[in-house]
Amino acid sequence: MSVKSSILVVDDDETVRALIAASAAKAGYRVEQAEDAAGMRAWLATGQIDLVLLDVNLPDGDGISLTRDLRAHSDVAVIMVTERGGPDDRALGIETGADDYLAKPVYPRELLARVKSVLDRRAGLRGAGTANRLRFAGWCMDLTARAVLDTLGRAADLTPAEFDLLHILVSRAGRIQSRDALMVALGSDDAESGPRSIDILISRLRKKLGGEDGLIETCRGHGYRFVPAVSRG
User: Fold this and answer.
1) Which residues are modified to 4-aspartylphosphate (predicted)?
2) Counting beta carbons within 10 angstroms of the beta carbon of residue 80, is it exposed (0 to 12), middle (13 to 18) or buried (19 or more)?
3) Could you say which of 107, 129, 151 is where a domain stops?
4) What is the pTM for the complete model shown?
């Protein structure tokens, strides 16, 4: 378990939500809170959440349906926390896509043990199968599939040249890259149109990925620099 893992507590009961959040924060997790499905979706869209502690009964949706919908486009970890603690309820939750199912009342020690177990298991799976993935600013760059996915699992519509240029920039994150260096890395030998083509590709990447200079910084007179921190896996 990483102390930097982020947990989202989703429960319409403020007292329960605060109790769970306090326990998780004390254990070293970063904790966010939402009182309904709309708030959950807003937090998930930021790409900052590693695990959701989800109540089954919410004012604008039920946890079973929400988890089913979530699994259609996201692999974020989910632990259902609910008053429905029967064997059939647990089985339905797991079948729907939850990583674990915990009945109320919630006991902090058990809750944290479940959270740690799920996050450790997820980390093991990532280590085994995602060596060719680069993550930055809420995006996941899959080098094998040649796809760039957002937090909801949707692929950005990149051309091969745009993907290749982005890969070069991401691989050299934090370092200024001249237009000439980028041309060479792309395998372009057209000295006249090359620099302009790099500018066009950068402009397209910014439009498709957002962020403007916050993602790819223009270093006037020198070239470009990829700004966000990059992690592998």
Assistant:
1) 55
2) buried
3) 129
4) 0.55
Q: With beta carbons less than 8 A apart as the criterion, state whether 90 and 101 touch.
A: yes
- Tell me the C-alpha distance between 120 and 118, whole Å: 5
Using DSSP's 3-state secondary structure scheme, residue 228 falls into coil
Listed as ranges, residues in the chain with pLDDT below 70 are 1-4, 85-87, 91, 122-131, 187-194, 211-213
In a domain, 1, yes or no: no
Q: How many domains does the chain have?
A: 2
- pLDDT for 152: 85
Q: Which domain holds residue 145?
A: 133-232
The torsion of the CA quartet 149, 152, 157, 161, rounded to 10 degrees, works out to: -10
Q: Give the residue among 49, 105, 58, 102 at the shortest CA–CA distance from 77.
A: 49
**CB within 8 Å of 17: residues ≥ 6 apart:** 9, 10, 11, 33, 35
Which run of H or of E encompasses 102? Answer: strand 100-103
